[in-house]
Amino acid sequence: MESGHVDATIVDKVDSGEIQLEEMNRVGVDKDSSSEIAKRLIDFLLVYDFEIVHSEGLIIIKIILDKFNVLIIPMGEKRILTGSDSRRILENLSDYINEEKKNVVIYYTPGGRLLTSAYLFLGHLIEKHKIGILFVNGGPEEILEVLESLREKGEFVPREDDYVKIM
Fold first, then answer.
1. How far, in Å, CA of 92 to CA of 151, rounded?
2. Which residues are paired to 114 by β-bridges?
3. Closest alpha carbon to 48 in 163, 117, 140
């Protein structure tokens, strides 16, 4: 290894497309299920000013708060988020990132799971793009909890008992 040279990590190699991750069942966005999830979630979001947009097969619920631009991505019921999916979804959001506000992306899948690869990629994407990213696998009330905390406190800090079991 040359002085000052750092080898690319596995995350870098997958991010650049040099390595492809194996696909599994129930990964990514399920279009039918995500539509149903979005409809149910909208009933909870009526107190917020929101817009629904469609991009590359994604439903994006865009909520503007005083300091935050929140993008909620309903993935469907019990979906698995992988590293490659987390990157692909975020790439489709570039037109909806607001440079004047703090951006928060919420991957939303009730009963879903976050794989280790996604956990690593989300950390990488947070650093690379300087945005907040959350994975929510509970009910719509958890989305409301995040939004209320952002609106009232200007931040969201998960409770200690809120954690993601990494597979």
1. 25
2. 81
3. 140
